[in-house]
Amino acid sequence: MTGAGDKTYDVVIVGGGIIGSAIAHFLARDDGFSGSVAVIEADPTYEFATTPRSVASIRQQFTTEVNVRISQFGIDFFRAANETFGLDADIGLKEPGYLLLADTGGSEAHRARVDWQRSVDADIAWLEPAELAERFPWLAADEIAGASLGLSGEGWIDPHALLHLFIGSAKAGGVDYISGEVVDLETSGMSIDTVVLADGRRLVAGQVVNAAGKFADRIATMAGIDIPVEPRKRCVFAFDCREKDAIGLTPLVITANGVAFRREGPVFITCVSPPEDRDPVTVDFEVEHWQFEDIIWPEIARLVPAFEAIKVSNFWACHYAFNTFDQNAILGPHPSVKNLLLANGFSGHGLQQAPAVGRGIAELIVHGGYRSLDLSDLGYDRITRNRPHIEGNVY
What pLDDT sits at residue 5? Predict the structure, then answer.
């Protein structure tokens, strides 16, 4: 029920992290849209947000075309940050590539994936052990059956910088950012009428976007629906290495066992997705040091001899909005709530997919369909039909 003090918006975006702010940015810049937009963010300092705590990487080495195309748009967007946000915009883009290592059992399938990636215009090369040894002498190439390397279009950025450029652009375009926690979605029939905040404020909404990241399932439940998204903790460790100058700038390396590491300024950072039986649903920030001691260090020391003598200098935790159905994003309308759009379940790929998803969701709102890149393979209907969109390269 609408009250006299309620404020009305054409679009209310729940979640002001990288996905919600990317959507707001593209709405504000769409010449075909003149409506009002509010972004609700429960953590306006972003102290506990996933985006600033992420490894902030982008790759094209996926196994489904929609994910490759999303990343191709993303890298073009990152490269053109100065054109989009102004000449002083600096997102710290570096493109040393991803280096995905293969073991003997998986090398044939890995190489076939590279051939397919090249067929969809991804700039990926396959390296035999001798080529690895020549290009990356710090690797124990005799422990590796081969590897794929992104020659361009892969790397990482400064996540904090990109987030605040999106926010600044959205605000400059008239988007209201509201600090508050959503505690209820009032519905009538098949639509959401009002977004209710913890302090009692009520926002009447024409359309609602669930971009709530690790809390996406809570927002969905308020709308009376279920989505297969839950928060999973990921721990990142920074370490120093005495031989770092000899190693220099690395690609983002992912071993055949899923351990990732790369150079970050004067240190290296590393992480791994824990085994399923040790990966509970949680929103706590307690760092799981056993991951480094039991999984990460033995693996990277085996593959990089210089890492046998390293010292952890920092560590932190963040969260994946983990899609338990197929680890891919869930995008677009929900069939049971006609004015609700989903942008959830990125499973660690949110930052790199934010530009294409932001543009795509904005196109759905303004034009009623995707215009630039068809993201319908990632729609909710695949869950209804029990047809997962399987991505082979999820880390």
Answer: 58
Topology adopted by domain 94-153+231-320? D-Amino Acid Oxidase; Chain A, domain 2 (3.30.9)
The pLDDT tens digits for 318-335 are 999 999 999 999 999 999
Q: Does domain 7-55+159-228+326-384 have CATH number 3.50.50.60?
A: yes
Sequence ranges of the domains in the chain: 7-55+159-228+326-384, 94-153+231-320
Residue 341, CA distances (Å) to 11, 23, 191, 257 in order: 10, 11, 11, 36
27-43 residues labelled b (16+ CB within 10 A) or e (exposed): bbebeebeeebbbbbbe
- The SS3 call for residue 344 is strand
State the Cα–Cα distance between residues 68 and 72, nearest whole angstrom. Answer: 6
Whose tokens are 């999984």? That residue is 295
pLDDT in tens, 158-174: 999 999 999 999 999 99
Residue with tokens 């009538």: 188
